Amino acid sequence: MSRYTGPKARINRRLGAMIFESAGAAKASDRRPNAPGMAPPVRKMSTYGESMREKQKIKYYYGLGERQLRRVFEHSKHAEGDTGTQMLVLCERRLDSVVRLAGFTKTRPQARQGVCHGHFTVNGRHCDVASMTVRVGDVIHVKRRGGLTDLYGGNLAAFDGQAADWLHVDSERLMITVTRLPAKEDVTLPVNVQMVVELLSR
Question: Quick check: is 1 in a domain?
């Protein structure tokens, strides 16, 4: 699950959301928006089926395995506030998610690959752990070596969106600063997380 390499448009169509953002997946999803199969399903999906679908959204979107997701859930249960919101906030605070939200990459898998290959530093230290949770005040830099500055500088220049409000991006120095923790309204994935919480609580 954490390294899904199959047809991405198929996942987008099955889950009814733009989970994978690559151009090819987006084009294929637009061309065939219905779920995979010979025809649209006749029977209504059960509550359990809907809960599983929402859980799959989180797993594919953030690149989590089942054990990773349950670890995030257990951590969220002991945090202050709503468990579902805390789950999504923890996922948004992953280092690979921050790199994507800042506009340094075009997709989350690309961000994950860049982090795992050691293209970034956190507070001046080498980091190649995509699941690292960032904190307020953390500073993420693109390493000044090889063609990394050209790669990520080019991606940032071509980024047609807007960086997350809780991040400050310095395009000249290729630097990201975490100015605050994300809130519920900052979560980028449209998902019914309460159904996921109920499913994982069984």
Answer: no
Q: How far is CA 180 from its chain centroid?
A: 18
Q: How far apart, in whole angstroms, are the C-alpha atoms of residue 95 and residue 164?
A: 13
State whether the Cα torsion 25-98-102-145 is positive or negative: negative
Give the tens place of pLDDT for each residue, 50-104: 999 999 999 999 999 999 999 999 999 988 889 999 999 999 999 999 999 999 9
Domain around 154: 94-181
What's the CA gap between 184 and 175, in Å, rounded?
25
Rounded CA-CA distance 83/166 in Å is 21
106 falls within a domain: yes
73 and 105 fall within a common domain? no
Q: How many domains does the chain have?
A: 2
Question: Distance (Å, rounded) from C-alpha 58 to C-alpha 95?
Answer: 16
Q: Where are the beta strands (DSSP E) in the chain?
A: 120-122, 125-127, 139-142, 167-170, 175-178
Distance of alpha carbon 58 from alpha carbon 77, whole angstroms:
17
